[in-house]
Amino acid sequence: MKEGRKKTPNTNPKKNPHVRGLGYINEFLQCRCAPELLGLGLYPNAKEITESFSMFNTVRRHLKNEFDTRDPDVVCVVVGDGNSPRTAAMLCYRTSWQVHSIDPIMKLDGKWARTRNLTTYRAKIEDVSILIPRGKKVLVVCMHTHVTLECCLYSLRIERQSDDESKEDRSKKVQVGIIACPCCQFTEIQTSVFGIAPDKTYKDISLLSDKNTIHLWKNIAPVMLKRFDDAAYVESMWERERVARYPKNWLRRHKEKLEKQLSGNVDWRECMRKRLAGYDPRAEATMKEKPSAPYSPDEVKWLASTFSAFASHGAFGLACFAAGFLVSRRLQTR
């Protein structure tokens, strides 16, 4: 009996749910840069690959007229990239952009340190100030980022042509776009920027995550420049950021742990005022580091005599001296 032709499986993800998420994996395997990206140790699993490629696909399909991948005048800021610049490094390989990757747990000494057009920051986005040269376009990418979009935009410092340049003229020369894929308590918060709804919202079925809703804004610069010149709005923005990052039920469970952090050590209003005045928190953190106090001549003589006394007992004596010295240094620095 003649065997019939085998039916080819349907590879359309909309009609065959079993192939959902394979589109970005297939694209990754066909990329020339895939071996180099894998060699950098950026992706621990397939989910991270689909998240990065989802951001690139959003640019390629929905923002190709505003942010051309071959345009070197585009500055991309990736917020919350993780301990390795997964999305930022992929964008460096597949675009001509200048890419900045920011995350509090970012590893700065990884294999990706020499990647072309890549700058990494081990810090929170509110502690970073990124200067945007005149005539550049800015694209902010937030993949499952635990921060408000307004806070991300506030870290951008748009270079002025002159001190007399008006806000209207600046807004015409600057273009700032946003791509956001929210998660956790930020699912509802990141659905608008300055009260403005996104230009497009869709679900990316090839993204291997339950939180696969993408929001994008093509140009938010006019409203951004107007709002950030209002001190009252900036003050309320920091308060919303604190409430969003620390919801009530989370504060209730960790009240004792966060009491000092939220009451005494972190004053969002004072932080706002300092940032408006050009304050750099990293410079103050460096100034607050107190160097260890030098030893006086009498203490040096005493240490020398003590070392000689212990050294006369051999290796055991030297070990006891070293242990005592380390304990005294620890007590001194407290």
Gyration radius from CA atoms, angstroms = 26 Å
Name the helix and strand elements from N-terminus to C-terminus, one letter apiece.
HHHEHEEEEHEHEEEHHHHHHHH
Helix content: 40-55%
Cross-sheet strand order for the largest sheet: 3-2-1-5-7-9-8
Number of helices: 14
CATH superfamily of the domain at 17-244: Vaccinia Virus protein VP39
At CATH level 2, the architecture of the domain at 17-244 is 3-Layer(aba) Sandwich
Mean pLDDT: 76
Largest sheet: 7 strands, mixed
Task: Using the coordinates above, name the CATH class of the domain at 17-244.
Answer: Alpha Beta
Give the gist of this structure.
The chain is of the alpha/beta class and 334 residues long. It has a domain at 17-244: Vaccinia Virus protein VP39 (Rossmann fold, 3-Layer(aba) Sandwich), CATH 3.40.50. It is 43% helix and 14% strand.
Task: Throw out a few tags for this protein.
single chain, 334 residues, alpha/beta, Rossmann fold, two-stranded parallel sheet, disordered N terminus, transmembrane, transmembrane helix, membrane
